[in-house]
Fold this protein.
Amino acid sequence: MDFLRFRLFLSLLTISGINMHSGDTLKHQGLRSKLLTEIQHKGITDEKVLAAIGKVPRHLFMDSSFIRFAYQDSAFPIASGQTISQPYTVAFQTQLLQVEEGMKVLEVGTGSGYQSAILVEMGLRVYTIERIRSLFLEAQLRLSELGYSAHFLYGDGYEGSPSYGPYDRILVTAGATEIPDKLKSQLKPGGIMVVPVGTSGHQDMIRCVRKGSDEFEITMHGGFVFVPLLKGKRES
């Protein structure tokens, strides 16, 4: 599907009412269309990823102070010293996952819930874990109000959630100091984990594919900057 036909497809979804979340205006939808053009020019080619970015109302996941910037391709602060990732980064990580509808995905770092909504929009079974209780509660309420169904977990992202595993895919949305061994163990054979690894000022995007019981294929996909992935739980 070429991009002009793709944008027509999104327009038809909007007209039919499929994309009409409460508070999502035609202006917002037009700004998302421009954002799609921008991230496609930066190399995002997965049509499923582009379709999800085109449908999820990012402005409804942001602090009111930044709503007017919601469709700029930039990261912005949210509560508790965290961020909502740059749309290109969200799309890039999701594209690296190479998902198929119905897969079970563990997201480490719920944050605002925006990435969770993208994954749900793509037809995935999403388990998302957040260590900050206030963000966990806010994201759960926000996604419920928008009609996105996911399994929300309050806990330590380094530990993952083995009771719901193993997972087809694991997506880590904060910078780890190393690839967490406990997350690697929760991947299915053939499963893929995408995780930024490095210092607090720079991480390399790592794609980790489980080839066997103790065999993993590691590839690197460029530099990014994320808030750090921290251990333990926090109330606010």
Notes: The domain at 3-224 is CATH 3.40.50.150 (Rossmann fold). The radius of gyration is 17 Å. The helical segments are 3-15, 26-41, 47-55, 87-97, 114-121, 133-146, 181-184. The longest strand covers residues 187-199.
